[in-house]
Amino acid sequence: MAALGRASSSAPVLAAAAAVLLSLCLAALSEEQEQLENLRFVRHAQDAPLVSSYNYIVIGGGTAGCPLAATLSEHSRVLLLERGGLPYANMSSEQHFTDALADTSPASPAQRFISEDGVVNARARVLGGGSCLNAGFYTRASNEYVRAAGWDARLVNSSYRWVERSLVFRPDVPPWQAALRDALLEVGVTPDNGFTFDHVTGTKIGGTIFDNSGQRHTAADFLRHARPRGLTVLLYATVSRILFKSQDGVPYPVAYGVVFSDPLGVQHRVYLRDGDKNEVIVSAGTLGSPQLLMLSGVGPQAHLEAHGIEVIVDQPMVGQGVADNPMNSVFIPSPVPVELSLVQVVGITRSGSFIEGVSGSEFGMPVSDGALRWARSFGMLSPQTGQLGTLPPKQRTPEALQRAAEAMMRLDRRAFRGGFILEKILGPVSSGHVELRTTDPRANPSVTFNYFREAEDLERCVHGIETIERVIQSRAFSNFTYANASVESIFTDSANFPVNLLPRHVNDSRSPEQYCMDTVMTIWHYHGGCHVGAVVDDDYRVFGVQGLRVIDSSTFKYSPGTNPQATVMMLGRYMGVKIQSERWKK
């Protein structure tokens, strides 16, 4: 594809439709999540004692923290500290999710941020973490990834199976997704690997955390397997720092507790019980884990001193190597109605790009509980979420968002009928860093991803875009494209939509390279900042201190598989089993 050509006459309608990917995580509250409210060990931080002690303190009740805490509780006393609340509590999931990405409340389950690259992003703030907010696709890491990580393959497989028994399902594949699968095979993304969790070259159907009734299951479900007397979960608990002390005979500072605040601003202290095998474990995610290490005095000395933080360990690699897999998508209007579907099919190409798709029943949102009428909306990418706006966040007032939503309601319904085909690249090679903006633990740090800084990433994106072009032109996908719509006009319409805060290139012809750079978005697969070998050792212990580990996606140099949640969950279980085993060794 040498160039992407002129806009079609339908651009006003189609450009409005080309929001971008991952439309509707319309996730119904599962029975398991409702039951969490009745678990005795789940409490509000305000109800916690001012001083307490445990064998393990796990910071972050997300995709890694929940399976980790549940596993450790089998034989120890564990405290799990989560800065957010229960998933989708007391609200329909659709409305809660839209409000979440709009970040209108301190209690919202997602905290929106904009990277220094100008890409709008979101950070989970809810028990269950990103598994409460994502598209639900489940696929394992490749065997090569497992070997490169130095993991025990047998324990990895048993940990994956533990996860899969708890919350993974086989999706029903609707016609739009089936057409995408057949089109990928037609254009050469072969072989057909059928339904599998494995990461192998070709086209496959993966697992999902949505059950057959459409209900979302999350990492919070793992807590139902915890030993009730072994686990305490505190919600709305914001950890401000890890406590360190000097200890006779120990050459490094020793972590011995944490300080957290409840929503009223009351500070609580939690200490590790006596015993050299008790630990603080940080599972606060790619942004939260390096941020908390730095707030606690473990990080680049000059940066910490600039913020007035006492340096415990000068660790220059904390916050470095943070990467986000760039995602680009195109909206394909459909001449026929399209069923709602999130990611179910993936094409794993030999060129290092992954092709997925989402479709929608006119990308609607139910206008009231139980109603069969649908408002015209792009779900989590509608104006209400702030994902599509190019205004600075402070200018995204409720009135401005309402005007944008009303404008969408006046559009022809055809603007919302179709689906997004998206591509994400392997790796990526390009990376950036996380830095503190402030010493307030509730604030997001500054994040720079440096999308496409390395030529290899851009080359992979171009291959992905060219694969999508062939898919759109394929015979297998022809029922879901207008016969008179050119590929060039479809891409140009998508390119004209403001999906990020980057400067727009005003021209009527774009190369695939320009399309990749102009329409870059996140697929929420960011990782790094506490790399194995740089910040933590092979057992995830933090270098330069004792009694402290980091176990989450911040330890990854590259994103595992096409979608990382399976491996992050697996890692929580995997390390929980290993830590338990170490504890009982003489």
TrEMBL record:
Query: Where along the chain is FAD bound?
Result: V126, V239, W524, H525, P564, Q565
The leader peptide range reads: 1-30
Keyword field contains Repeat: no
Disulphide linkage map: C461-C516
Q: Where is the Glucose-methanol-choline oxidoreductase N-terminal domain?
A: 285-299
Keyword Kinase attributed: no
Could you give a GO molecular-function term held by this entry?
flavin adenine dinucleotide binding
Alphabetized, the UniProt keywords read:
Disulfide bond, FAD, Flavoprotein, Signal
Q: Which cofactor does it need?
A: FAD
The entry sums up its family as follows: Belongs to the GMC oxidoreductase family.
List the PANTHER family hit by this protein, alphabetically. OSJNBA0019K04.7 PROTEIN, PROTEIN, PUTATIVE, EXPRESSED-RELATED
- The molecule here is called Glucose-methanol-choline oxidoreductase N-terminal domain-containing protein
Q: Which organism is it from?
A: Oryza barthii
Origin organism lineage? Eukaryota, Viridiplantae, Streptophyta, Embryophyta, Tracheophyta
